[in-house]
Amino acid sequence: MADPDPAAAVVRVRGITKRFGGATALDDVSLDFYPGEIHAVMGMNGAGKSTLVQLLSGALNPDVGHLEVGGQAQSHLTARRARRLGVATVPQRRELVMSLTVAENIMLGDLPSRGSLVRWKPARRAARAALDALGIGIDIDALAGELTVAEQTMVEVAREVRRGGRVLILDEPTACLGAEAAAQIRDLVCRLRDGGVSVVFISHHIAEVLGLADRITVLRDGVVVWTGLAKETDVGDVVRTLVGRDVVSRRPQRAGAAPQVGLSVRRLGHGRHIDDFTVEVRRGEVVAVLGPAGDAQSRLFDLLSGRRRPDRGRLEVDGAAVPFGRVSRSLASGLRCVTGDRRRLGLIPDLSVDENLLLARDRLDGRLLHRWKLLARRAAPLRTDYRVVSLAANPPVGLLSGGNQQKVLLAKWLGTAPVACLLEDPTNGVDVAAMADIHTLVDALAAGGVAVLLASSSAEEVMRLADRVVVVRDGRMIAEYGIGSITRDELVAVALGGALS
Amino acid sequence: MSTHPSTATAAGTPARPHRAQSRRPSLPHAGLLLVLVLIVVFASARTDAFLTTNNLLNVLRQVSVVSVIAAGLTLLMTAGGMDFSMGGNVAVTTSVAAQLLAHGEPVWLTVVVAIALATAIGLVNGAVVTFTRVAPFVATLATATLLDGVALLIINGLSVSIGTELFPLGNSTTLGLPNLLIVAVLVLAATAFVMRYTTFGRDAFAIGGNEDVARLSGISVARDKLVLYGLAGALSGLAGIMLLARLGAASPGTGGLTLQLTAVAAVVIGGTSLAGGRGTVFGTVLGVLLLGVVANVLNLLQISSYYQQISVGAVLLIAAIANLLQRRRT
């Protein structure tokens, strides 16, 4: 397939440079986006993907260079103008009004009315048509807040297409989704392409991108280092191009676990969400709990951290019973729970990186005074060990890229000498290099004699990290394996509900 | 977002601007300072009476009471709390203190009782907000109304004079500075220190920024909140004593919602977020000064009280917008 005629491009990025202060986020970037094509943009955290998305959607304007939309140069693009030109973005955070119905969300700002009265019949009909056109079978009268994340993404896509989106920018639409839901989103993306939409697909998931995209562009340090057809490349090439070197994340030879049980959860039960869940993790061992996103493994954080009190069950850390429902008791036992939802439960975005790094440790140490110079000095080794990279010296943590925020989160907890820890989806939304770093950190944690319980919805991650895996579905444990006695594909089959005994 | 001295500039190491700041180095609260300077310039051009030592000291003495309330409120609001009953608390405190003094109780006992009572009122607010999870706005608005009524009951709707009991605090000076001002400066400095250099103060930022994260990080959110509301109460008590000292009597309408709203306005003008997570004592000081100076200038220019109210509202609006514009730019 030869390069299509540049004149056919619906959006052309011409020589764009964007700087923030002294840092160059994008450097002379030129790209073309064609109708009926899925164009994946890949890059490490901080490579400039987000900046590119913001430029395309009119949230930022370039310092040098310009955009051409539909053959016309756009000098001062605003979010509103971009949308009118048909460039629509579906951001990582859902932008639906959760208390309104699907139909209202789709018709938001464009409800058919007579005078000032809403005409509900045509509104619902139009919403239904918008969903049907994309083959989405969601009840239009459901509340947006009651939908799954995947369904919310679909509704948002349908809304943008109905508003006349010809270029759809999907920012990590499959992050945090289970395998099945991710597949549904990928199907939708293919239908969009077949309908002539130009899809800009942002994802960290290399295998997914290779299977889905027509064209791939790789950004590194703000520069386009490679752009070409997906079928002409492979995983190894993409990783090398992304990182600029080979990245190997392989299971290390791990010394056997110690005989003492570091973390023991017995007969844990909480409503319909988790039923009769029992697991024992020895010190130095990594045990994974694998299940579809949102299943029993996602409840463990709330229950073990002390945020919620389960209906029944028993928790022991290092042989000592820990009462449920008290954060302070959970922390005092040496148990550290690292959330998979860093925005809501992990970090305080307005506080600086250093302060977030030491937020928990300083409280555990019972420090009374907050000495800023000392803070910077004490945070420095954590930053180095966990490879936290930021453009400025000590910005509010909310300004860091996702991968770096995730590392800050891990450093915040794992830097406090844990006895046992619960890690919930520890590589959620991070790039390959950061993922490899985090995997190494978890290895080191186990090697240091910590009992690690890993709550995950990713079979790859479980295969890479765990010594044993417990598979859960519908709140129940359905199987348990030593990691050597099962292959990845078998594990996926079990997790998805295939029978394997 | 970047005009956040407590986290951005207090960090000890210079030259650590984050992304946006490095584009244009900016003074925190520059917009607010500019408005204040403009008003001072305008006032001194219009009337000679403004820039006299006497008048300026008078302004400072007048804003002392509100700044003590505003200091407590800054800390509380940074932690995502709100106390609308501080003015009502002041009213109760002044009434009780006035009655005690009028009945011949010694000054020290009066001060101790008044501040203890005010702290207890604050703790009750804190307990209601922390343990029942009623919105702070609603809960403290209710106590505010209640306290205003109680204050009237205590003085039976009449003015209670205290003679010259607290005269030195309210009207004397030390080294040329009004004693009221000295108390206020001490309170403000202590609050600023707590917010910047103690774990308790940083807890407030964490709780206001994200209460769930704060709790999971091992911060005793409930205890901190109780202390914060108790502190707000204690400072209301102190402000009550100061007000009584200045006025020499407790009358119906002393303190109350008017005083409360001035304090809230000053804190919000100063850039403390109503949603929590952000706040500086310096901003609050500017807010208090701005309101005090405007009121003083209007008085000096002998502008009718109707117009005074309109002007204060207008200044509030302008200052709030100036603050916001600056925050957006940086």
Describe the structure.
The complex is a heterodimer of chains A (501) and B (330). By secondary structure, chain A is α/β, with parallel strands linked by helices. Chain A folds into two domains: 238 residues, P-loop containing nucleotide triphosphate hydrolases (Rossmann fold, 3-Layer(aba) Sandwich); 236 residues, P-loop containing nucleotide triphosphate hydrolases (Rossmann fold, 3-Layer(aba) Sandwich). Helices cover 33% and strands 25% of the residues of chain A. Chain A contains 18 helices and 22 strands. In chain A, the strands form five sheets. A six-stranded mixed beta sheet of chain A has the order 6-9-10-3-11-12, with helices on both faces. A six-stranded mixed beta sheet of chain A has the order 18-19-20-15-21-22. In chain A, α5 runs parallel beside α6 and α15 runs parallel beside α16. The longest helix of chain A has 16 residues. Chain A is globular, with a radius of gyration of 24 Å. The two termini of chain A are 46 Å apart. With 330 residues, chain B is mostly helical. Chain B has one domain: Orthogonal Bundle (ABC transporter involved in vitamin B12 uptake, BtuC). Chain B is 73% helix and 2% strand. In chain B, the strands form two sheets. Chain B has a two-stranded antiparallel ribbon. Chain B has a two-stranded antiparallel ribbon with strand order 2-3. In chain B, α5 packs parallel to α7. The longest helix of chain B has 27 residues. Chain B is globular. Chain B starts with a helix and ends with a helix. Classes of the chains: A alpha/beta (501), B mainly alpha (330). Chains A and B meet through α10, α11, α13 and α14 of A and α2, α10 and α11 of B.
Q: Beta-strand level of the residues of chain B, as a percent range?
A: under 5%
Helix content of chain B: over 70%
Give the tally of β-strands of chain A. 22
Strand order of the largest sheet of chain A: 6-9-10-3-11-12
Supply the number of structural domains of chain A: 2
Broad shape of chain B: globular
Query: Which CATH architecture of chain B?
Result: Orthogonal Bundle
CATH fold-level label of chain B: ABC transporter involved in vitamin B12 uptake, BtuC
Number of helices of chain A: 18
